[in-house]
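Journal club prep, shared notes

We agreed each person brings one worked example of a sequence with its structure written out as tokens. Mine is NADH-quinone oxidoreductase subunit D. I'm keeping it raw so we can talk through how to read the token line rather than staring at a rendered picture. Sequence first:
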Amino acid sequence: MSETTEPEPEHERIDPEYDHRREEGVDEAALEALLSDYAIGRDDHENAPAFVIRPDEIQEVVRLLRDEAGFDHLSCLTPQQYADRYESLIHMTKYDQRTHEVTLVVPLPTDEPVCESVEPVFRTADWHEREAFDLVGIEYAGHPDLRRILLPESWQGHPLALDYDQDKPQVVRYAEHANPLQEDRRLPESETMLLNIGPHHPATHGVLHLETVLDGESVANVVPDIGYLHRCEEQMCQQGTYRHQIIPYSNRWDYTANLPNEWAVARAIEDIADIEVPAYAQVLRTMATEFGRMLGHFLAVSTFALDVYGDFTAIFQYGMRDREVVQDILEDLTGQRMMFYYFRLGGVCWDLPEPRAEFIEKCRDFLDELPAKVDEYHDLLTGNEIFQIRTLDTGVLEPAVAKDYGCTGPVARGSGIDYDVRRDDPYGYYDNLEWDVVTEDGCDNHARVLVRLREVEESAKIIEQCLDLLEDWPEDERTVQSNVPRTLKPDAGTETYRAVESAKGELGIYIRADGSNSPARFKIRSPCFHNLSALPEMAEGEYVADLVASLGSLDIVLGSVDR
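Then the structure, token by token:
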């Protein structure tokens, strides 16, 4: 008998985990059976099946979905108001199966919009529900600390409520700080001190106020106080038109790595308006976005060096050196150095600059030099003994805690969570390219830096493949934008939640259309908002110097936190 064997069929050689993560959609029949005792209706969403749930049973339903169906990622909570009701929408998915999504719709009466809190099930709901209360006016029964989060406590009204008077003058009062430590948490032989870090401080990466209670040099309690940069971006997007006026706002959220922001908006609008994007434009989008990811990671690493040992002359300037090269490339491509506005619905605004060969050569020169530059970062930073002392085993964020707070991006992957929207819910041209999702198991400040440095190398691999494709693409097939109507008016009631992988993590957009050329509701799911909410878990019990390092390792941008 011959020992020659037939080649394996193609589908048997596929990595089972790879295939598992791309399994399309969730089993709606199984969900219906699981929620049969709770669902009082169904709703149609473009991205996921939606179930209408009573406000006094939502906590039980969320716990059931987490424990019985594996929905361990509460990615977003969207509050909104109609003429006849309020709604609290919960978008849930799975860290290991991103395409398995479900939306829970909780209708609430206009006279008493009270919903049961899901904070006991997912800690990330703490800040979500506070924001919903602050901006829309929905109250959450059982919430441990339901107060405003973006606006001052004395603010009158809710800016996203339909009856809000935007012309009413506001008087903001100042309140005296109180020690947040309860008596049973204070040691009789110790003395606590309240230390205000920020809102204007070099270590806060923006206008952030940390109310920190110290016991000696140890952090006994820390409460992030946000909202100093709140500009009601969601309301401004609701007042803009789909076609041209919303995408430019997105560059102002995470302004250090803002091209993924444009893609998040474009992906959501293209979903509800059923707009196709040409393959050539997808390659351009993918290449530009990975350059944008590099912008964010270079800045994150260089500013983190300032945080942990004040190194301005070496690491910070090395990071700025490499970031400038990327900015020059993106300026050639988009015409701008910061607020790029390169994306258009259905594609991008234009092709590569002429002469094409010169631009491609400039990109390749940068990529050729990048490995040696990354080695320099490791020599100067991750291999530095002082840096290691400051970052190893500090700011520890265990995987279960990271998931509980909805952490994503390098913060989650630094805790060993293998989750990346580019791979797990493919969009653009990512699914056709060879690259790897980077994870580290250290769960500490050091691991998060390693993830970002390794992701720069993965971005380079993606860009190089995109350049090869762009270079060989037939000239008569270089379509940069599909034919999009001048005025877009998606059908009333169309709803979707779509996300992309930004430099900071999962950036999601919820949109509800009302038949006009502007969205009735536009919700931004900020990765920085979620990641920052986990800071107390990382910092309490450590030294105040470790608090600064932990905050820097999160790589937050307050324009993204506050929106």
